[in-house]
Amino acid sequence: MGAPRLDGVGQRVGISQPPPRGMLMAAVTSRRTVPTLTAAHAYLVGQGYTNCGTDWLRGQHDYARLENLASGRVVIVEGRA
Predict the structure, then answer these.
(1) Does 14 reside within a domain?
(2) Closest by alpha carbon to 34, among 78, 76, 79, 65?
(3) pLDDT digit string (tens) for 1-60?
(4) Averaged over 68-76, what is the pLDDT?
(5) Does residue 18 lie within any of the structural domains?
(6) Phi-psi group of 64: left, alpha or beta (phi > 0 → left; psi -120 to 50 → alpha; rest → beta)
(7) Is the dihedral of CA 74, 80, 21, 54 positive or negative?
(8) What pLDDT score was predicted for residue 23?
(9) What are the angstrom distances between the C-alpha of 20 and each of 2, 24, 43, 66?
(10) 34, 38, 45, 56: most buried by Cβ count inside 10 Å?
């Protein structure tokens, strides 16, 4: 077989890469926008989520992550793995 084929910018073609660190592969069930990070934390704790680094987990399958917007608001993305 020879060396792997390269595309125009020198990247290997056909070799899959794992998702970026901290990105869970799951189905998004809801997206909610809140005014501040403090409000987002209060919402997640009230819903029974536990903070685990950059993600929030509830039970064995539910997760949430926070996305900061340029306006200062925060989007809570909830999903199920």
Answers:
(1) no
(2) 76
(3) 555 555 555 555 555 555 555 555 678 999 999 999 999 999 999 999 999 988 899 998
(4) 95
(5) no
(6) beta
(7) positive
(8) 57
(9) 29, 9, 26, 16
(10) 56
